[in-house]
Amino acid sequence: MDPTSQKRPLDGSPSKPHYSTRTVTNSIHKKPQVLVQPRLKPVPWTLADAQTAVKPLPLRAVDDAEAADYFLTEDHPFNRRGFKYKPCRPNPQLESSLYSTSDLPPYAARVSYFDRSQAVTTDVSLSRVTTAQGWRSARANVCVREGAWYFEYKIGQANEKLCKAHVRIGIGRKEASLDAPVGFDGYSYGLRDATGQKVHLSRPSEFMKPGFKTGDVIGILVELPSLDTQREIGNAFLKANPPQQTSKRARTKATAPPPLTLELNIVRDQIPIRYKSNIFYEQYEYTATQQMNHLLNPVTVFGEKAVPDTEKYQPTALPRSAMTVYRNGTRVGQAFESLYAFLPPFSQQNGQKDKLVDDGSLGYYPMMSVFKNGVVELNPGPEFSAADDELRARLANKEVRPLCARYVETVCDSVLWDLVDEVESQYLDVLEEQR
Predict the structure, then answer these.
(1) What is the pTM of this model?
(2) How do 322-327 and 217-224 pair as beta strands?
(3) Can you quote a single GO CC term (predicted)?
(4) Coil, helix or strand at residue 229
């Protein structure tokens, strides 16, 4: 079948259903059963889409004398309301998927175009952030999933006597709120500039004195166990806590607790959309669960569904995980340990039939929060100034890696899974023709 014969303009018009499959094999002697689930095919791209050059998004200057070097980015969507976005490009080599994951300049580990509050402004390099409003946050475009990684924050303006500017820095997951400071909920871990306290679930505790201010450089070392260990933890949790069946028919049908059969696979349900003359992938975002929200606000508000709390909910922690802090070349200490697990079933996508999937974006992101013209800069490396001699030795022998290396890994992962999606899509197209 000639794929060009079915091309229509990229205008959001209905398209033929796409089919995804899962092969279930009970025995090597039995013929596999193919379960076909319909989904939408991407609308074909046009020649004009393929000829459009990749360039930085337009910047709009901020009407603030104190933020003359900072801009708002335009012509792109922001991650919100259960959806997230990333750039994509037409790819003539992919006959079924039609598109492949792309990126926007600058091509490096930096602040994300999409994963930040709309009130956060950035410099041209997307490494420094600020805001004229109250607490607003931004995450980086790469995350840490396993191993030991190091990066730094340079404090541009914060915690001065004649200035209201403040910043908070740390790490956060996809579910962490961007309209609140890092450390506000159970999905992020933060540090306060004024007191040097560490903050998690909005509960501060003493950590380092004095705090940090303009000119300081704070280093963050994040250590996580291997993904294999994390998946074993997820499977053990599901066996001990099988998902509750909500429908009467499902409750009456005896079924074994489903294992994480897809945990080794990256499932990316994404569809290309047009937004202000540009094309982006739209995906379901990971959202906060009711149990995690209940940890932050234990009291049930009138009108909300009550959360059973006969036994206090305790999120599953990752063994041998920690966040260690360095300041101006000196090791301060371990701010947090036993970080909460983030792979399914500990993160869920609302809107999907199968919520227990990993789309490759789960992990801990560098996360920075700014208040009233506070300024902070992300330094992903490879040159650092806050690390002590011991950490520099670990960086030299690659026991610890700079965050900038995660960008290269992320690009390689995107290319790999684009090819995997194309192979699956071609197979599904054959099944569709045989129906």
Answers:
(1) 0.86
(2) antiparallel
(3) Set1C/COMPASS complex
(4) helix
